[in-house]
Design brief:
- This protein is α/β, with parallel strands linked by helices.
- It has helices spanning 9-18, 34-49, 66-76, 104-111; strands at 4-5, 23-29, 55-61, 84-89, 92-98.
- A 5-stranded mixed sheet has the order 1-3-2-4-5, with helices on both faces.
- It is globular.
- The two termini are 15 Å apart.
Length: 112
């Protein structure tokens, strides 16, 4: 299994809309931050090893896709931070974690 990168507001709107049908896990990732690099490693570890088959996985690069990152924060009422992982169900934030709390173990605890 793998994740899909969201680069446009239209793609984000589709992901949010589809969260009525399936859970969505989004990682907001900064390509210049070592903490975010670790979060990406943890996220990939979960997705590669044993992902929940009923969830779709996404990545947003917060610097390269700033409008998307800002729209996610606005739509979900979640203060922007990076790294940040957000689990979305029914068009709303169900769970989120930031910085060093973005771990394979935390993702597993919520999704498995």
């Amino acid at each position: 299994m793998s994740w899909t990168e969201i680069t446009t507001i239209e793609e984000w709107n589709h992901v949010l809309e589809q969260s009525d049908k399936r859970g969505k896990l989004v990682l907001k990732h900064s390509t210049t931050c070592p903490v975010s690099a670790n979060a990406l490693k943890e996220f990939n570890g979960y997705v590669d090893a044993h992902p929940d088959q009923d969830v779709d996985y996404y990545l947003v690069k917060v610097i390269e896709s700033r409008p998307v990152s800002n729209q996610i924060a606005e739509d979900l009422g979640v203060k922007h931070e990076s790294p940040q992982v957000i689990y979305i169900k029914d068009r709303a934030k169900y769970w989120s974690a930031t910085h060093w709390s973005v771990t394979n173990a935390h993702i597993s605890a919520v999704l498995d």
